[in-house]
Amino acid sequence: MTLPRSTCSAEGVDATGIRDLVDAARAADLDLHSLMVARHGRVVAEGWWAPYTAQRPALVYSLSKTLTATAVALLQQQGLLHVDDLLLDHLPGVDRDAIDPIWSRVRLSHCLSMTVGFETDVEGRVFDRSRPQDFRADDEWLHRVLATPPTREPGTLFTYNQAATYLLSVVVTAVAGGGVEQVLLEGIPEVLEVGEIPWHRDPLGREMGFSGAHVPTGTVLSLAQLYLDRGRRDGVQLVDEAWFDRAAVAFGPLNADPDAGEDWRRGYGFSLWVQRHGYRGDGAFGQFLLVLPEHDVVVAVTSEHERMQSLLDLVWEHLVPAVDRAGSPEADAELAGRLADARIEPRRAAAPAGPDVARLRRADDEPSSALSRAYRASTVRRGPDGASTLELDRDGLTLPVRVGSGEWLESQLEADGWRLPIVASGGWTDDTHYVAEVIAIETPHRFTVEGRLDDAPDDSTLDSTTDASGEVRMTWRLGSLMGPDPFGLAVRTTD
């Protein structure tokens, strides 16, 4: 059941605190995509920065770990496993004589709490979605993980890593017969309120577990509320209350990384970080599930930035003091209006400008944030009312992108059996410069395509009916963790 709606003042929250949080995030260029806040189990603030919408799922990166841990909790409630079980007891196909004996001492609780015994994150030695060879149909990531044994005794060292949660995904599949997605959809459908959880998977079809889940912001908030309510929803105990006694507190040694932010040094439970106020699940580039039990508040955020501690600092500075502070209906209305009008400004074309057709070769002097070199060229074709079509050449395959002027237009990129929804805006800014911004709308990420025409010969005049040539640069705003090719982000097939 959808969480009920209320107003900030009715639930004892001063709406100006949330307004100030939004303003401070904008001033700090934290690029919010969505924000939801609930108190006493009622949503008091919600907004999506267009073209992001409430209905679309979004890649939440490592917030996926909290979903995977919740699947483990559901299986424990069914009696199919227990967090104190030995890992290998749930991997019957593994030849124990062929792996390091230390694996026989790893428990599920060690995987949940990042205390397996790794001294570094072994992800780069185990799997890399950006490398095509990692997705051969006959490959088995589990063998790679087990061939990379912990170097410290399980339970004695905290090291945030991806392999630990991947092992949990493998266990869930082995124990339940279905994957993490199936366990969640069958176990807490009234919490998730979605019919699917698109998820990046390994070559054998298992969810990556540590990342890759795509869920709407409302699902993140609803899951946060389930944790705040210690597993109850509408009077029904969906998850055993005892789970939260262990999941939401520091399990083992603290994070010893001297460069970690303050809210990354207070302990780690079962795929949850302990923080100054309550605890959280989070994902790269600013995806947050915040649970503040002392204030009876939960928060969900999606965004794209690399300063996650800064966003938390703003929540503590602006939202937390607003709890139990007198508000007003006027402040509620102002906040609701601000959030309803929130948007990422689309780019506009300068009209008239540019040729009807421009063929742009890939520039050589691009930064490290550039798209994959598989994107060799682009062609820009003029459309009506300042709109244009941008044709991306990906190893000889033409990928058409509809580009709006002053509006975001949607397209579906399709290649290699994958489909990636995008929206784009932009156009010719003058007679020789073209800029389009492209958002992979089910992810935090966007990239820019910038074209510049070659200088025309002194004795020629470029007009709008002439095909022109030039060069193009394609760069990510912030590079995706799934590799430089946008299709690394794709989670939907063309079937």
Automatic annotation (TrEMBL):
Residue stretches making up the Beta-lactamase-related domain: 34-304
Listed InterPro entries: Beta-lactam-related, Beta-lactam/transpept-like, Diverse_Enzym_Activities
Source taxon at top rank: Bacteria
Annotated segments matching region Disordered: 347-389
Coiled coil: none
Any Pfam family the entry gives: Beta-lactamase
Listed SUPFAM superfamilies: beta-lactamase/transpeptidase-like
PANTHER family in the cross-refs: BETA-LACTAMASE-RELATED (PTHR43283), BETA-LACTAMASE-RELATED DOMAIN-CONTAINING PROTEIN (PTHR43283:SF7)
Name by which UniProt lists this protein: CubicO group peptidase (Beta-lactamase class C family)
Protein's organism: Terracoccus luteus
